[in-house]
Amino acid sequence: MDMHTVRVGTASVTPSDVMAVARGGARVELTEEALEALRTARGFIEDLAAKPDPVYGVSTGFGALAVRHIGQDLRARLQRNIVRSHAAGMGPGVEREVVRALMFLRLKTLASGRTGVRAEVAQTMAAVLNAGIAPVVHEYGSLGCSGDLAPLSHCALTLMGEGEAEGPDGAVRPAGELLAEHGIAPVELREKEGLALLNGTDGMLGMLLMACEDLARLFTSADIAAALTLEALLGTDRVLAAELHAIRPHPGQAASAANMLKVLEGSAMTGHHQTGWDGVPAAPRVQDAYSVRCAPQVAGAGRDTLAHARTVAERELAAAVDNPVVLPDGRVESNGNFHGAPVAYVLDFLAVAAADLASIAERRTDRLLDRNRSHGLPPFLAQDPGVDSGLMIAQYTQAALVSELKRLAVPASADSIPSSAMQEDHVSMGWSAARKLRTAVDGLNRVVAVELYAATRALELREASGAGLTGGAAGRAVVRALREAGAEGPGEDRFLAPDLAVAEDFVRSGALVRSAESVTGVLR
């Protein structure tokens, strides 16, 4: 595990802090400021607990059962019971990085001093993170309202020494055993603490932050792949000129066009509208197809959607989501800030953007493979068409992925199923939106990888054609790096899946962006 330490105070943490803990295994440490805020807020809760007046979450039941006043002799049991009963998830366990993000973001809210838990509870959560213990959190159970209740309940159950968790070695074992091995005492929950551990949008927010990081890399990767396809199709780079994009001033569009121009700099392949790959005059072509010409407009719209999603994520990072919440003057007030709509909407927006980016990438790949539209490239980029099938079925795989991404673009946040005896009668489905976005991001990575693999093969075929066409330095650097990574170039048919797997990892690891930037400098 990374020994980098993220300090958690009463102020907001940053997206990079979340990535460091979730993906980098960074340790966490509560500041003295946070511990003091926790102690102050806890004092308010204990004062209220001593009074006869009912306070939601402190001396009442939960949800539709909030009408019952709970006496002091049953309050510890009440808090234990909410965790046990709400830890009702089903299905496979979610990824370790999601669980770590979920716990870290809940810890961030506890440290704000707005939840009223004791400092010991927050310190135990930090200790569990630092020990590399990840509670088993299941795929299904959250409606994205009243927080990610079931996922957070499974995390709280681990703090109590109950349920199952994954140790630092990846083995799933009883949580109590893992806590004991690391010298962590299980917490005994008191008034409000069970509820405070469950009532946040932390799961969907954590997945949003990770999706934003992944999509930023994928938008740049898609720009590179689109540029190489334009180059291989002998398209024109004049449509990428800054002055053309300035008259429709969407910042994402301008960024994508600028990236493509950088990748194409110095290419001798662009702009050959009147000739084929062997220099023989071809039918006049004054414009490229939409999938090539409009690449910056589509990828740029996705970039702008990503920018909006990041704004929402940063606002949510600055929030302290709980119900009821402890205010600075000591009042404890019920609220609806746990509703996941703001996060759910942008998760769905990003799924739409991912699907459309995949769709246009697949159309470009299809043009590279179709001899009637590829301007002189061999059918399916095969060595001996008819004997060899080339990349025919790679495009089938890409099309299947795009079809799935289109299904995943159907918004989860447009759905709502009432729960808790109609007390919670409108929910966000934000957790579901986050889960399907993770699948969509994974699919988009593969789609971009297939376009990249086809475009690099096409570029090599152009340069080997004898027509004297040479590609730009950035494209040649990408081809060289991809081949060095293990994806083979043109030739007779072979077992293709391993090459596509290499291309997939090449995109996912950021190697594609790094190889292009070795020539272009930083791409946006």
**CATH superfamily membership of the largest domain:** Fumarase/aspartase (Central domain)
**According to CATH, what is the class of the largest domain?**
Mainly Alpha
The largest beta-sheet arranges its strands as 4-6-7
Order of helices and strands: EHEHHEHHEEHEEHHHHHHHEEHHHHHH
Give the helix/strand class. Answer: mainly alpha
Percent strand: 5-15%
Give the overall form.
elongated
Count of alpha/pi helices = 19
| Spans of at least 5 consecutive residues with low confidence | none
CATH topology of the largest domain, what is it called? Fumarase C, Chain A, domain 2
Radius of gyration equals 27 Å
Euclidean distance between termini CA atoms? 30 Å
Proportion of helical residues:
40-55%
Organism: Streptomyces boncukensis
Pathway: Amino-acid degradation; L-histidine degradation into L-glutamate; N-formimidoyl-L-glutamate from L-histidine: step 1/3
Pfam family, one: Lyase_aromatic
Main location: cytoplasm
List the helices and strands and how they pair.
Layout (H helix, E strand, L loop, with lengths): L4 E4 L6 H8 L4 E4 L1 H18 L25 H12 L3 E4 L2 H16 L7 H12 L3 E2 L2 E3 L8 H11 L4 E3 L5 E3 H7 L11 H6 L3 H31 L9 H5 L4 H14 L25 H4 L1 H23 L7 E2 L5 E2 L7 H29 L22 H17 L21 H34 L9 H13 L11 H12 L2 H10 L4
Parallel strand pairs: 1-2
Antiparallel strand pairs: 3-5, 4-6, 6-7, 8-9
GO molecular function, one term: phenylalanine ammonia-lyase activity
Family: Belongs to the PAL/histidase family.
Subcellular location: Cytoplasm
